[in-house]
UniProtKB/TrEMBL annotation:
This is Carboxymuconolactone decarboxylase family protein. SUPFAM superfamilies: AhpD-like. Gene3D superfamilies: AhpD-like. InterPro entries: AhpD-like, AhpD_core, CMD-like. It comes from Pseudoalteromonas prydzensis.
Length: 149
C-alpha cells in the first residue's frame, strides 16, 4: 500500500519542521555539539524502531565524524565504555522523554551539573523534534535506504 507523501501534501508543515532542524543545529553547535545531538537522534530512533531515521542519522553521524563502534554500541550505551558523562546524561534524558518517564528532581539536578539551562532547553527540544520525526515517518513509511560505506 502506498501511503501519503507528507512532503507533497503539507509542504508548509514540513518546511516548519525542517526550519526547526536548522535552528536546532545552530543552537546545538553553540551549546553541546552535534555529536550528542546525533547520538540522541539515533537513540530515540532505536527506541521508536524508526528504520528510516536510523539510516539517515547513522549516515549523518558518520559525516560529522562519529565512530562506527559508538553507533553500533548505542543500543547498549549503559554498558559500553565508549561514552562520556555528558553523552550518558543526554542519552538517559532521551530515553526518559522518549518513553514518557518522569524526570525527578535528582535526575534534573544531575543533568544541570553537566548542562547549563540553555543547553537543557535545547536538548529537550532536540529530543522532542526527533520523536516528532520518528512518529511522522512511522505513519507514512517513506522508503528506507541504507547506504553502505
Amino acid at each position: 500500500m502506498k501511503r501519503a507523501n507528507y512532503f507533497n501534501i503539507e509542504p508548509e508543515l514540513m518546511t516548519y519542521l525542517i526550519d526547526q532542524e536548522a535552528l536546532l543545529k545552530q543552537k546545538v553547535e553553540a551549546s553541546f555539539g552535534v555529536t550528542i545531538w546525533e547520538l540522541v537522534k539515533l537513540r530515540a530512533s532505536q527506541l521508536n524502531q524508526c528504520a528510516y531515521c536510523l539510516a539517515m542519522h547513522s549516515a549523518q553521524a558518520l559525516d560529522y565524524g562519529e565512530n562506527i563502534n559508538r553507533i553500533i554500541a548505542l543500543s547498549a550505551w549503559q554498558d559500553a565504555p565508549l561514552y562520556n558523562d555528558k553523552e550518558r546524561a543526554a542519552l538517559a534524558l532521551c530515553e526518559k522523554l522518549t518513553l514518557s518517564q518522569s524526570i525527578d528532581d535528582d535526575f534534573y539536578l544531575a543533568l544541570a551539573e553537566l548542562f547549563d539551562q540553555r543547553s537543557l532547553v535545547t536538548l529537550t527540544v532536540a529530543i522532542n523534534a526527533i520523536n516528532s520525526w520518528n512518529r511522522i515517518v512511522k505513519m507514512f513509511k517513506p522508503t528506507v535506504e541504507f547506504n553502505e560505506r
